[in-house]
Design a protein that fits this description.
By secondary structure, this protein is an all-alpha fold. The chain is built from three helices and no strands. The structure holds iron/sulfur cluster.
Length: 59
């Protein structure tokens, strides 16, 4: 959630390869959704992160 909040508010959360690579290689299989004890839909969040990363790359 900290990453999501940082992205959503335009804060610098350090978009380096350690952050970008795992997000951009996500296959959206949604397997992690069943593991989150808080019920966060991780696959949906990753989809949003990808859009934000791509938007940042186009600036
Ligand atoms: S949806 Fe979750 S488990 Fe599936 S590839 Fe992406 S991060 Fe990994």
């Amino acid at each position: 959630m900290l990453i999501e909040n940082g992205f959503g508010q335009g804060k610098d959360v350090g978009l380096d390869s350690d952050v970008i690579n795992p997000i951009m290689t996500c296959l959206h299989c949604a397997a992690c959704d069943t593991q989150c004890p808080a019920g966060i839909r991780i696959a949906d969040a990753i989809h949003s992160f990808k859009a934000i990363i791509l938007e940042a790359m186009l600036k």
